[in-house]
Amino acid sequence: MRFKTLMAVLFAALIIIFSLQNAEITDVDFLFWKVSMSRVLIILGSFGIGVLVGILVSLKKKVM
Q1: Euclidean distance between CA atoms 18 and 44, whole angstroms
Q2: Strand-pair partners of 35
């Protein structure tokens, strides 16, 4: 359990460092929307959504 926690913290730190080094403004096109936002927000938002999906998938497996 401790190894998993250490790896999760290390991976999260790498994601944060990577995203902070990519702070330029980027256009995001999704269906009919076009938004200009910082790459930091895009990277961290994508990471957050991925974590949330992973948690939801793991919860479903435990219930069944």
Answers
A1: 10
A2: 28
Q: What is the pLDDT of residues 48-64, one digit of tens each?
A: 899 899 888 888 655 55
Q: What pTM was estimated for this model as a whole?
A: 0.63
Alpha carbons 44 and 40: distance in angstroms, whole number: 6
User: Is the CB of residue 35 less than 8 Å from the CB of residue 28?
Assistant: yes
Residue 42: HSE in the Cβ half-sphere, 13 Å Cα cutoff: 15
**In the chain, where are the structural domains located?**
2-63
Largest CA distance in the chain: 45
CA atoms within 13 A on the CB side of 33: 5
